[in-house]
């Protein structure tokens, strides 16, 4: 009975406000575009031709394509066993494994890069142990600063996406087909390849293309490890804008990058649409069984060990290194809080303040505009494909947006924090919008109707009913934006703000000057601050 | 407040709803009909939650057709109660008062008083999620009553409750309506519920009100064969022909033979008719009797089905000619296969047009 009806004038007026907010959000990434692409139309009109002629442009595109392909392949290989374990088996540690799903969203790339340096690097934990145990003269592992290092970092960072998407579908796959194959005499391997994997194909395609997209537009990890091997377009934009100070080339690269990412986002959206359809059919969740037989148990244990080394190794290295105080170059060290104390001597308190200010600005801009837009679009009855516009910011790389905003909102001695917040808000907006949208969608029609019959105007209803009921969703969007801002070094490196550097930038600069232990201490502080957002969100949600 | 719907019309793709009904101040109207008959739409049109394509709504003598829902001052109780889950019981009840700008103390006092009257004293601070179905229903009603509504509209107010509670609450709801004296419109698909809740019942079918009247009128004088079938008082038999009859009576030939009915006040007009053979008005007679003293038909038949329901037994019977009809026996049961006879006196034979409104 809840059929659409013509909106009343007052609703239209209010919804217009929501649309304005949506427009404001769109402005977050539309406004910087002229700034980013402006130099293309400057006095020297040959920038685009010059850039397209440049072999570096093509080699960066080729490198990006290859490393993304390899990264998604490795992520699939790493993620599939996890998907099966999480979806179909019950064992101690299952929850821990499935909690890795938040890694790609909650752990900043710079922390991943630092973790890899501390674990796999030339003087990292692995090399140091090998040198000591086998009494070697040289560290044996030198793959980190190469194509392989980039791929390993991307795969370890993103394999939880495969685990999550494939696992969700795997948990809901009916057993009937596999049982039918079994009754016809097929072996388990044949069933996996011939029956199960094809059924999982939509989720695998969707996960692989997402990992591909993230790896293709990866910035910090490639910047750190790719130096000798190659660079992505994102890194090339950064070099052109900040190191070579060649705005024409930066703008041209931005155009190339945007075109490439738009293509990829289009492909992802197409795959995702098919995945969504395919995923709807099976409804029930299969019972998880305990691990069966020696083979299954030992395979699971071996896999667990691999994941523990790949994920736990770097994480633990950062934590431990932050408590190791180096004494000169002799290699002598002791444990203590020295690195943290040094950080505060360096002005980490100011950096904490700057990080907090930046994250609050980002969270506010993203969730205020996201919430208003979600509310307005709903009041207007906009549904379905028209909502896809919300994902547009994903199609424009942060490098491009950063380039634009820093031109528009300049600061003293570098970009202003506001410009950085605008860049980060553009990136966080789809998430903030989505959580608000989902929360509003959950409010039942009759609850709104009840408010209307009790005398609430549309605006009054928004204040007294809609927003309080959606508070949890809105808060979680804001928390995500906050955490994203705390950990985001990319926008800071690209925009290079003046004044006291936020923690992420401080950490990047410390690592850049080989003060790794202090960088690790900064990383630990950053991780603590980021996780604070989620703790506060729980508190706030409970209080409401 | 008096509430009158004058041909309120809403055209859905598959159904046109036209609602015509009036309920006097302090009285109650039950809107009854099968699912999909348009009764919920009718209620939403009155509430202002749907905009009518045409027609008028008159509230207390003033035209309220163009007023948005929030200005109509009608209290609505929704099927799922639609309580605000972020507010406590008392804040739910006080919601409409807050909107009207009452001070915190005033609205708390009024809401607490209302909760007391509805038997929810001491529930004020509770979380609505902790309430039982019946308690939620009363909170929803208190919330609607708090705004001193011109009328209270209830959409299937009891259908989300279990049957036992339902029976108790519908009597409570009716008592409350009488005691508090509010004007009420209640939508239901349950005949018994409609008869109990409404001073009058608007029976809807296919988007139209097919009969509006007191419960007894509907029961004793259904407007047409469709109404008679829906209310299920007995067996509806098409009239094959009319035969000569004494003044004031009509003899209708049906599959069960000639049945003597009272002549309708308007006389017989040229439309198809049917006879409602009221199961509760058939009189059991000895199987040997040929005809009653006043010449009413005696239906001799075999019991094909016997449903014992305590104070009475519902029977399905079949005549030698293979025609089935329903009857009721008070105080005793019957076994399938047994032969029984019933006298069909004029009180049990109601002549109704096949199609009303013609």
Describe the structure.
The complex is a heterodimer of chains A (544) and B (358). Chain A is mainly α and 544 residues long. Chain A contains 25 helices and 6 strands. Chain A has helices at 9-30, 32-37, 47-53, 55-88, 94-99, 103-106, 109-120, 125-134, 147-172, 176-183, 188-216, 220-225, 233-243, 247-280, 293-321, 338-345, 348-379, 392-395, 398-408, 417-442, 445-453, 458-487, 490-495, 503-512, 516-543, and strands at residues 89-90, 289-290, 324-327, 332-335, 410-411, 414-415. A two-stranded parallel sheet of chain A has the order 1-2. In chain A, helix 1 packs across helix 17 and helix 7 runs antiparallel to helix 25. The model of chain A is unreliable at 1-7 (pLDDT under 50). Chain B is 25% helix and 34% strand. In chain B, the strands form 5 sheets. Chain B has a 6-stranded mixed beta sheet, sandwiched between helices. Chain B has a 5-stranded antiparallel beta sheet with strand order 16-20-17-18-19, with no helix packed on it. A 4-stranded antiparallel beta sheet of chain B has the order 2-1-4-5, covered by helices on one side. In chain B, helix 3 packs across helix 4 and helix 3 runs parallel beside helix 5 (133-145). The longest helix of chain B is centred in the middle third of the chain and has 18 residues, at 163-180. The interface between A and B is medium-sized, with 25 and 34 residues.
Produce a short descriptive summary:
With 544 residues, chain A is an all-alpha fold. Chain A has helices at 9-30, 32-37, 47-53, 55-88, 94-99, 103-106, 109-120, 125-134, 147-172, 176-183, 188-216, 220-225, 233-243, 247-280, 293-321, 338-345, 348-379, 392-395, 398-408, 417-442, 445-453, 458-487, 490-495, 503-512, 516-543, and strands spanning 89-90, 289-290, 324-327, 332-335, 410-411, 414-415. A six-stranded mixed β-sheet of chain B has the order 6-7-8-3-9-10, sandwiched between helices. Chain B has a five-stranded antiparallel β-sheet with strand order 16-20-17-18-19, with no helix packed on it. In chain B, strands 2-1-4-5 form a four-stranded antiparallel β-sheet, covered by helices on one side.
């Amino acid at each position: 009975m809840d059929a659409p009806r013509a909106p009343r004038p007052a609703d239209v007026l209010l919804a217009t406000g929501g649309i304005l907010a949506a427009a404001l959000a769109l402005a977050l990434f539309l406004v910087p575009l002229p700034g980013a692409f402006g130099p293309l139309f400057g006095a020297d009109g040959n920038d685009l031709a010059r850039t397209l002629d440049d072999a570096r442009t093509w080699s960066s595109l080729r490198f990006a394509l290859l490393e993304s392909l390899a990264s998604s392949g490795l992520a699939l290989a790493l993620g599939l066993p996890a998907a099966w374990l999480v979806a179909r088996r019950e064992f101690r540690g299952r929850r821990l494994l499935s909690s890795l799903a938040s890694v790609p969203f909650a752990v900043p790339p710079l922390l991943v890069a630092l973790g890899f340096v501390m674990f796999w690097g030339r003087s990292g934990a692995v090399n140091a142990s090998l040198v000591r145990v086998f009494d070697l003269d040289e560290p044996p592992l030198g793959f980190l600063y190469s194509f392989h290092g980039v791929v390993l970092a991307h795969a370890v960072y993103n394999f939880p996406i495969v685990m999550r998407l494939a696992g969700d579908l795997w948990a809901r796959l009916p057993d009937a087909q596999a049982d039918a194959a079994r009754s016809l005499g097929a072996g388990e391997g044949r069933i996996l390849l011939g029956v199960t994997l094809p059924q999982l194909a939509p989720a695998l395609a969707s996960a692989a293309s997402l990992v591909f997209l993230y790896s293709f537009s990866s910035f910090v990890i490639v910047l750190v490890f790719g130096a000798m091997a190659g660079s992505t377009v994102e890194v090339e934009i950064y070099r052109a804008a900040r190191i070579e100070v060649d705005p024409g080339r930066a703008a041209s690269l931005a155009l190339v990058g945007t075109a490439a990412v738009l293509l990829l986002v289009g492909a992802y959206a197409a795959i995702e649409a098919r995945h969504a359809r395919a995923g709807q059919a099976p409804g029930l969740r299969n019972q998880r069984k305990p691990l069966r037989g020696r083979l299954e148990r030992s395979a699971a244990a071996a896999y667990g060990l691999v994941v523990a080394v790949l994920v736990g190794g770097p994480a633990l290295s950062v934590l431990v290194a932050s408590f190791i105080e180096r004494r000169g170059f002799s290699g002598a060290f002791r444990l203590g809080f020295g690195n943290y104390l040094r950080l505060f001597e360096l002005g980490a308190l100011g950096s904490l303040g700057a990080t907090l200010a930046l994250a609050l600005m980002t969270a506010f801009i993203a969730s205020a505009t996201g919430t208003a837009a979600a509310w307005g679009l709903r009041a207007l009855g906009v549904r379905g494909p028209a909502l896809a516009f919300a994902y547009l910011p994903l199609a424009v790389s942060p490098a491009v947006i950063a380039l634009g905003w820093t031109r528009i909102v300049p600061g003293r001695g570098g970009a202003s924090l506001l410009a950085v917040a605008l860049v980060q808000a553009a990136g966080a907006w789809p998430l903030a919008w989505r959580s608000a949208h989902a929360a509003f969608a959950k409010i039942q029609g009759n609850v709104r109707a009840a408010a209307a019959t009790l005398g609430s105007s549309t605006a009054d209803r928004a204040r007294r009913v809609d927003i309080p009921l959606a508070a949890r969703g809105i808060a979680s969007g804001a928390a995500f934006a906050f955490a994203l801002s705390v950990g985001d070094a990319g926008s800071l490196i690209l925009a290079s703000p003046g004044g006291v550097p936020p923690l992420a930038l401080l950490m990047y600069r410390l690592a850049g000057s080989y003060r790794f232990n202090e960088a690790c201490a900064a990383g630990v502080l950053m991780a603590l601050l980021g996780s604070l957002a989620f703790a506060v969100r729980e508190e706030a949600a409970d209080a409401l | 407040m008096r509430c009158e719907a004058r041909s309120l019309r809403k055209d859905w793709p598959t159904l046109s709803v036209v609602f015509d009904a009036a309920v006097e101040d302090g009285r109650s109207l039950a809107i009854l009909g099968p699912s999909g008959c348009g009764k919920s739409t009718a209620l939403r049109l009155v509430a202002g939650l749907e905009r009518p394509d045409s027609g008028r709504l008159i509230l207390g003598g003033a035209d309220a057709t163009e007023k948005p829902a929030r200005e109509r001052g009608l209290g609505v109780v929704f099927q799922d109660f639609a309580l605000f889950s972020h507010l406590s019981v008392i804040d739910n009840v006080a919601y409409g008062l807050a909107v009207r700008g009452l001070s915190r103390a005033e609205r708390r006092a009024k809401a607490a008083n209302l909760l007391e009257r509805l038997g929810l004293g001491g529930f004020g601070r509770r979380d609505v999620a902790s309430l039982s179905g019946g308690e939620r229903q009363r909170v929803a009603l208190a919330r609607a009553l708090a705004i001193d509504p011109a009328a209270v509209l209830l959409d299937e107010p009891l259908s989300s409750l279990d049957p036992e509670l339902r029976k108790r609450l519908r009597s409570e709801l009716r008592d409350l309506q009488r005691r508090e004296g509010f004007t009420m419109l209640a939508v239901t698909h349950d005949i018994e519920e409609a008869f109990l809740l409404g001073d009058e019942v608007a029976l809807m079918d296919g988007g139209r009100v097919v009969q509006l009247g007191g419960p007894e009128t509907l029961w004793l004088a259904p407007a047409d064969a469709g109404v008679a079938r829906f209310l299920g008082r007995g067996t509806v038999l098409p009239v094959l022909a009319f035969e000569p009859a004494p003044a004031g009576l009509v003899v209708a030939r049906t599959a069960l033979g000639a049945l003597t009915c009272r002549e309708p006040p308007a006389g017989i007009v040229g439309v198809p008719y049917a006879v409602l053979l009221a199961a509760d008005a058939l009189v059991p007679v000895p199987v040997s009797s040929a005809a009653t003293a006043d010449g009413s038909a005696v239906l001799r038949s075999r019991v094909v089905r016997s449903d014992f329901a305590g104070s009475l037994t519902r029977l399905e019977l079949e005549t030698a000619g293979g025609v089935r009809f329903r009857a009721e026996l008070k105080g005793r049961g019957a076994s399938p296969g047994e032969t029984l006879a019933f006298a069909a006196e004029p009180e049990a034979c109601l002549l109704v047009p096949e199609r009303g409104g013609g």
